[in-house]
C-alpha cells in the first residue's frame, strides 16, 4: 500500500479497524486533532487506539514518507468506502506531521532568541559588576560592618543591602544555640493553594493537584512547629466546600498534631503549634484545578493578609505585651511572620504579595517549573503556543514564578540540577550574575541596584515515626513463612500484605517495588518491558506496582487510564500473571507496610521516572532498609550520593534497568551493604535536620527588617457614640489626636503638634462640605469605617487630564457617599504626581483636603492632603525595598524603545519623577515596547521594578517592586484598620496598564462606562502573553459594570457594598 513501509501500512490498517469497531458500536470517531494534549494532564483520557496509532505514525515517520503514502493511495483510488477513508486519513496524518515540524521549527527559533537575549543581559550585568571602581574600593566597611563606614550611595534608601547577613556562613544551629533560641517565638507562614490539603488520611494521587507537594507542606508545617524557637506555623490553603470532596476540606482551621521532638516542652497553650488555615477564594461550591485558580489569587491574597495581620496582633498581645508601667493606651507590637514561604507558582505569587505588603522576607519552592514544562511541551511538537496557553495557562504560571523570583530572598531547591537546568531558564535568575553579586556583597560594596535571589539546596525531610526498630535490624525479622501464612503469624498482619501477596504464585521471591501515580512520565511501561524480557529477573523476583487508586480504569481522569491499560496489555503480552501485583486500592497509612513487606522479602525499590525533580519515595524506601534503583535524571543523583544505597540507571534503557536490578537482587552482599548505608545516612533527610538547615539558611540569606522598618498597625478605637453638638470640639480634638498618632512622625515637638491641630481644624469645614452638619463626630481621616477609591484614569489623547470626565467620576463618588456621616473616606488613585493630582482636583472643583489620601505616581507615593501635599515618608520607606534608584534610570530608555525609535521617543521626564518614581515621556505608543518586554529585559540584568504606562500611553512610570496602586490601597487598609470588604474602587472601562490589577480582590469594583476615552492597556503584554481573564474573573460578584449615566445605580452599589 505505502511505499514499501509495512509499519506505516500496519498502523493505518489498525486505525481503520479501530474506527470500524467504534462505528459498529454506535460511537463516533474522535477528531484527529493536530495537537492532542499530554496524556498525563488531559481532562479525560480513556485509552484510545486511534489516537495511539496516529501518534505513533507522526512520531516515528518523516512527513515525506507520509506524503508518498498519501500520493500512492490517491493513485489507487476506487469507489470503496475503505479506500476513500484511507485517502482522507493519510492526508490528515501527513498534515499533522507537517504541523509538528513547524512547531519544532518555531520552538527552535524561540529558544535561540531567548538564549541570545539572556546572554546579552547576563554579559551586560556581568561587565558592570566585574570591576570595582576606586570609589567602591574605598567604601569597603571594617569587619564590624558599621553603617558609618558605608558610602553615601550605599546609605540611600534604595540600597537596602544585607551586608552583614551575606558575610555570615550557613551553618547548622548547635544544640546549645537550640536551647537559647527556644524563647524566640517565631511565626512562620507557609502557602500552598491548590489540591486537597488536610493533616490526616491525605488523598494523595486522587488527582494531579493532590500529590507529593501536599504531603511535603503538611509535614514541613508539623516539623517546623516542633523546632526550638518556632511558636506558630500557619499553612494557608484554599477552602473547598463542595459535595465532590470530603467535608473536612471546608473546615476553616485544622490543628496539626505535633511531631515528637526533644525540643517540645509540652506547651500547647496560647495559639502555638501548626495549623492548616483554609481561606475561600473563587467559586465556593467548586473544586477547581490549579490552572483555573489564577484569576482568584488576589482574593486569596486579601484574605491571607487579613488573617496574618490578625494573628500578628494576637501573638503580639500574648507574647509581647506592653510593660506594666506603659500607658493604658499602649499597644503591643505585632509579631510579624519570620518568613512567608510559597510553594509552587500560584503560592509564590501569593507569598510575594504578602511579603511586599508586610515588609517581611519571602522564600519560595518551585516543586515543578513552568518553563521546564513549556520546553517539554514544545519539544513534543503536538501543541502550538496558543493551545498550550489555553490548556495549561503556562504564560500566567511562568509570570507568577518570575514574580516570586523578583521578591524572594531565597529559593529552596531539592538538587543542584534544579538550579542549573531549570531555574537557569528564567529571566529573573542568572547563575553567573548571582555569583558576582555575592562577591560584591561580601566585599561590602554596592550591587549597582541589581539583585538575584539565593538558591539553597535543602532536601525535603521525612517523618520516621512509622519506622519500627525491627525495620532497621540487619536480620530478617520474623520468618518469611510467618509473614505469608497468617496462621503461623504471631500478630495480625497488615491487610495490604494479603492484598499484594494474593497476586503471586510464589510469594517467597524478593519483591521489586515501584510506587508512583499512573503517569507516563513515571516510565512504568519501560520497567515492565525490562521485567518481561528478562527470564533471569522473572525467575528471581516478583514485581509490585502501586499506581494510585482506581475503581474503573475507563472512569479515570487524566492519563492514568491510558497508563494502566498499557500496563495490563504488557502483563498479558509477556504472560506475567502470578508474577506482577497491581492492587486497585491502598490507603496512605498502608504505604509504610508496603515498604516493610518489600524489605522483608529482601527486595529492591525502583524509581524509573524519565525525570524525577526530587524523589521522596527513594528516601522513604531507604528508611525501611530497601536498596534502590533510580533514574539518573534529576534529584536521585544527589540522594544516592548522600545515602550510597543503590544504583543510578538510564530510564530509557530496559537493559540498564535489568542489569541494575539483577546486580542488587542476586548479590546479597551488595544488597546488605546498600541497606546498611541507607539506614546509616538516612538522618540527613530527617525533618529535624531539614528544619534546622532551613532556619539556618533563612537567618543567613534573608534580610529581616529592623524594628523601625516593620509595618506599624495602630489600634483603631471605637468611634464616639456621642452626637451632641456640645461635645463637638472635644470629639474633634480626640479625632485629631488619633490622626497625629497614626500619621505624624513620632518625634514631633509640641509646637509642631499645636500647629498641626490648628491647621487641621481650619481644614475641617472644607472637608465636611459634602457631608453636611450631621456628620458623626469621632470619624476622621485614619478613622473611617469604609473607603471609596476613585481610580478612573481619565486622560485626553495628548495625555492631559480629562477634567470634564474626571469631574463626573468624582461627583458620582461624592454623591454616593452622602449621608455616610463621616464614616466613609475618599481616596484618589492615579498615575499623576502629587502636584498634578492636586491641581487636577482643583480644576474639577474638588478640594484636595476633602480626600483622606492621594495614591500618586502609580502607587509610588501616598499623600495625606488634609495634612500636607507631600509624600508620606513612612510609606516611602516601606516601598524602598530592592529599588535600584538611579542605576536603572538610564537603562530604561535604551531597553524600552522600539527598534526604529529615536532617543526622544522615550526620554526622562524630570518634572514628573520623584525619589521612588522614574518618569519617561513617550511620544508614540508604536515607538515603545510593551511592559512585559521591558520588564523581561530588566530582569535579565538583575533590576527589579514595576512599570506602568499612564496618561494615555504618553508616560512610563518605573516604580519600586513593592509599589503599586493595589498595594498602596492594602497599605492604607492595614494602617487604618479598614476591612477591604468595606472598600469600593471606581474604574473606567479602560485605563493605565495596571488597571487589571485594580479589579480583583475582596473590595467591590464598580466599572463606570464612558468615562475614559483612551487608556494605555494596549501596552500591557505581547500577543504571546496571558489573557486578562487569567488575571481577573470578570464574572466575580465583586465586579459590577454599571450602565452609562446611571449614577443612582452607582450610589446603590456603593452603599450596598460598604
Automatic annotation (TrEMBL):
It comes from the Eukaryota. Residues 113-161 are annotated as: Disordered. Pathway: Glycan biosynthesis; sucrose biosynthesis; sucrose from D-fructose 6-phosphate and UDP-alpha-D-glucose: step 1/2. Residues 852-992 form the Sucrose phosphatase-like domain. Gene3D superfamilies: Glycogen Phosphorylase B. Coiled coil: none annotated. Residues 211-420 form the Glycosyltransferase subfamily 4-like N-terminal domain. Residues 506-675 form the Glycosyl transferase family domain. One of its GO terms (biological process) is sucrose biosynthetic process. Pfam families: Glyco_trans_4_4, Glycos_transf_1, S6PP. Keywords: Glycosyltransferase, Transferase. InterPro entries: Glyco_trans_1, Glyco_trans_4-like_N, SPP-like_dom, SPS, SPS_C, SPS_pln. It catalyses: beta-D-fructose 6-phosphate + UDP-alpha-D-glucose = sucrose 6(F)-phosphate + UDP + H(+). GO terms for molecular function: sucrose-phosphate synthase activity. Its EC number is 2.4.1.14. Plays a role in photosynthetic sucrose synthesis by catalyzing the rate-limiting step of sucrose biosynthesis from UDP-glucose and fructose- 6-phosphate. Involved in the regulation of carbon partitioning in the leaves of plants. May regulate the synthesis of sucrose and therefore play a major role as a limiting factor in the export of photoassimilates out of the leaf. Plays a role for sucrose availability that is essential for plant growth and fiber elongation. Belongs to the glycosyltransferase 1 family. Homodimer or homotetramer. This is Sucrose-phosphate synthase. It comes from Aegilops tauschii subsp. strangulata (Goatgrass).
